[in-house]
Amino acid sequence: MKDVVILGTGSSAPDNVVTNFDLEKIMDTSDEWIVQRTGIKSRHIVKPGEKFSDFAVPASQQALAAAGIEAADLDLIICGTMTPDYLMPAGACTVQALLGAKKATGMDICAACSGFTYGLAIAEKYLKCDPDMHILVIGGEIISHHLDWEDRTTAVLFGDAVGAAVVGTRENHGAKLKAVETGSDGNLGRLLYIEGMGSATPVTKDYDIDNVYVKMQGREIFKHAIRNMVEVSNRALAKAGYTVDQVTKVIPHQANMRIIEMLAKQFKKPMDKVFVNIDRYGNSSAGTIPVALNEAIHSDFLEPGDVVLLTVFGGGLTWAAAVIEW
Ligand SMILES: CC(C)(COP(=O)(O)OP(=O)(O)OC[C@H]1O[C@@H](n2cnc3c(N)ncnc32)[C@H](O)[C@@H]1OP(=O)(O)O)[C@@H](O)C(=O)NCCC(=O)NCCS
């Protein structure tokens, strides 16, 4: 049987870079606090008029080019995002039209930061049923539209970015998706949420704008993030037939440098085996994993023979991990 493989990746982010020093000018924060507590130095933030598809399309085109696949050959587009261009149609359908992926089916996954990795899990299952499919998995967010720039406890953490991967089946290809595992706990949903835009708070003339902002209990999230990323990573590794000791590279969710360092400690990996770009992007939610994967591929971080662990956590609460043989 052919392996499920990653055929190509891509990523894109707004040109506009906002540094911690820029944030110092609009809220009561400091570069020192943000760097010490999060590891973030700057993030990409859209300018007025820019939207999800402006970044999802180039990221997808890069992934298609790297895979050597035409958009017209795509059978399925899975888009992990909470911030598509429109509530309807789905982000995947908008991207489908812009790419000219006429025969594809488009669907969105709402799993917050875990959206891309949930998408990989779905793609893997589709491909096990129909190995001839070509699937585009997109993950990313224009999360800045949901940030309260007066709330220093959340606004400093996030940024906008989108990544994409084309997944298919091949023999003898060095990017085998060996296992993807997922999990969620809706009972913990209120630890990280956006109240508005759903049916619980229909938009009225005097709509409270505060409803559309990300709300978070940071300390609680911190604990659940580590616990659940370790649990789901162990589950994915067991399914792939590996122990954590055999993992040679880790590409973790980029939410907080301290979370990344604690994960590295739990997995007993030196930091040079752990991919980090949080300093330049902040947390781009569903964008962190595909953007990091794309950058890891285009740097010298990944080497043939690597056993790569992707691990992520987000609102829902949701979590997911994937194991790739490079
Ligand atoms: C949000 C987070 C960085 C806060 O770090 P922390 O060490 O827990 O800090 P606390 O929330 O305890 O706040 C400590 C102090 O810093 C202050 N503070 C919070 N944000 C600040 C900022 N941007 N600048 C300056 N001070 C800030 C707080 O008001 C508090 O002040 P006080 O002691 O006078 O009350 C951290 O909890 C975190 O990253 N959690 C996980 C969040 C996450 O990953 N979310 C996305 C998941 S997908």
Which descriptors would you attach to this protein?
326 residues; alpha/beta; Peroxisomal Thiolase, Chain A, domain 1; 2 domains; five-stranded mixed sheet; four-stranded mixed sheet; 10 helices; 13 strands; 32% helix; binds coenzyme A
List the helices and strands and how they pair.
Blueprint: E1 3-12, E2 17-19, H1 20-24, H2 31-38, E3 42-44, H3 52-67, E4 76-80, H4 91-99, E5 105-109, H5 115-129, E6 135-141, H6 152-155, E7 161-170, E8 176-184, E9 192-194, E10 214-216, H7 218-240, E11 249-252, H8 257-266, H9 278-281, H10 288-298, E12 307-314, E13 318-325
Bound molecules: coenzyme A.
Quick rundown:
The chain is an alpha/beta fold. It has ten helices and 13 strands.
Please, could you describe this protein's structure?
It is built from 10 helices and 13 strands. The chain has helices spanning about 20-25, 30-40, 50-65, 90-100, 115-130, 150-155, 220-240, 255-265, 280, 290-300; strands at about 5-10, 15-20, 40-45, 75-80, 105-110, 135-140, 160-170, 175-185, 190-195, 215, 250, 305-315, 320-325. It has a 5-stranded mixed β-sheet with strand order 1-7-6-4-5, with helices on both faces. A hairpin with a 3-residue loop joins strand 12 (about 305-315) and strand 13. The model has no long low-confidence stretch (mean pLDDT about 95).
Determine the mean pLDDT.
Answer: 97
CATH architecture of the largest domain: 3-Layer(aba) Sandwich
Q: Poorly predicted ranges (pLDDT <50, ≥5 residues)?
A: none
Helical element count?
10
Number of domain modules: 2
Q: Which word captures the global form?
A: globular
CATH class of the largest domain, named: Alpha Beta
Helix content: 25-40%
Rg over C-alpha atoms, rounded to the nearest angstrom: 19 Å
Order of helices and strands: EEHHEHEHEHEHEEEEHEHHHEE
Q: Main sheet, how many strands, which sense, barrel?
A: 5 strands, mixed
Q: How many runs of DSSP E, i.e. beta strands? A: 13
CATH superfamily of the largest domain: Thiolase/Chalcone synthase
How big a fraction of the residues is strand?
15-25%
Strand order of the largest sheet: 1-7-6-4-5
User: Which fold does the CATH topology of the largest domain refer to?
Assistant: Peroxisomal Thiolase, Chain A, domain 1
Judged by helices, strands and strand pairing, the structural class is alpha/beta
Bound molecules: coenzyme A
Note the gap between the termini.
Answer: 18 Å
